[in-house]
Design brief:
The structure is a homodimer. By secondary structure, chain A is mainly alpha-helical. The first copy, chain A, contains 9 helices and no strands. In chain A, helix 2 crosses helix 3 and helix 5 runs antiparallel to helix 6. The termini of chain A are far apart. Chain A binds a DNA duplex through helix 1 and helix 3.
Chain lengths: ~210, ~210
DNA sequence: GCTGCATATTGACCGATGGTCAAAAACGTG
DNA sequence: CACGTTTTTGACCATCGGTCAATATGCAGC
């Protein structure tokens, strides 16, 4: 009666997560997940309809909490829109690092299922954060901090570039190039929203915390 | 002695292309490709090391010509930078439509190998067009048509947004939302490069040709 | 403790896949 | 024709994601 079902469910997700840290997705079989979770393969399909569904659930579990905190962020109108935007950016960065960095540094970059993982992660992150960031931008516009006619577009553009560039496996770049793109994005956002050059610079300090050279 | 080898090689690519127009990638087996090409499965592996390699070769073949013409575009300084930019944008749009549209409308959106195809295509398109667009932008800056400090970043941002949004399977949107994002991107580019509002509007007419409503 | 039903769990099993390989065919050359 | 080389073949393999009938477990009410 103690929700045993959810316990096993989480155990399966734990197993997949553990395996993902060691090897590439396409090398992880359902049997392996089952073995790591300490159950039979058949049981996997009692909790999940497919291998794909396990992945989806894991992506969702990993980002549920940070995204909910981002959600509440939108409502805290006492914090300045700029600061909240920076916090969203940081959330992107952290989650990118958590889920993608380790494996890709070591393993081969582009495998069929690896791409699938990235897509799931990006789709989830952008579609979840877009409404939040959009609202913050709208508040910024109302408050007079920003001037732009397409808040949702602005939010989506910024998020897509951030997520895609922070990943760095879709369009591999040297750290310097990535840096340049991010700086260019900031500059574009500044000019596009009618802010003086340098006013959004603080976004950069959030965006890069483990890299050298400015 | 007539390069028979290349003939068969192309035949395999033809077969994959033909199958891709009918069904989703994950439903296409190597045997099926072989059958369509009129050869035995074993022969496939005489020309390609893996199924993945066939895909890569096909992506490359499909975009080699349009990208080379884009390359020559960069050198035609007699055409205005704006016009050439618009032509690049159109190239993006056309190739997106050619390779991705048909299947995704009918089949389920996100399958593991489908994501792989998209990634390959996006990576190839953006990385190929980035240097071309960068040079055009630099010429525009030198010519006084544009003002911006990070031409490469500008090129990459525009290309990524275009490719990602034109695909519309990574972050599914209604036609209206896509429209809004593109319009927002244009607006952002105008303001960011010191151009008056509406001056880049003509990019839109290239970008949308099969959709209704503005 | 026993009975009966629902919920969980199992692992043998299935069809299909990507990929291999020894053998055979086709080719070019002397 | 005879030969070495390059192509071509399809049976074969290991493995995968997924199914399912059988089985175990948990838990009512008696």
């Amino acid at each position: 009666m103690f929700m045993k079902k959810n316990v096993k469910y989480e155990k399966i997700l734990d197993a997949l997560q553990e395996l993902l840290e060691k090897e590439s997705l396409q090398n992880i079989s359902v049997s392996e997940i089952a073995q790591t979770a300490g159950i039979a393969k058949g049981s996997i399909y009692y909790y999940f309809p497919s291998k794909e569904a396990i992945l989806e659930a894991l992506v969702e579990r990993n980002y549920k909490t940070p995204l909910e905190t981002a959600q509440t962020l939108a409502e805290q109108t006492d914090i300045s829109p700029f600061t909240r935007m920076a916090m969203i950016f940081q959330a992107c960065r952290n989650s990118s690092a958590a889920f993608l960095s380790q494996k890709q540094l070591s393993s081969q970059l582009n495998a069929p299922e690896e791409a699938f993982l990235r897509q799931k992660y990006m789709t989830y992150l952008v579609s979840s954060l877009k409404p939040v960031l959009t609202e913050i931008i709208q508040q910024g516009i109302a408050h007079g901090d920003l001037r732009f006619d397409h808040p949702a577009a602005l939010a989506e553009i910024a998020l897509i570039i951030l997520v895609v560039k922070l990943d760095n496996s879709l369009f591999p770049c040297s750290p310097g190039e990535t840096e340049d793109t991010i700086v260019g994005l900031i500059s574009l956002l500044e000019k596009g929203t009618g802010n003086p050059s340098g006013s959004l610079n603080f976004l950069t300090s959030y965006t890069q915390s483990s890299d050298r050279a400015v």
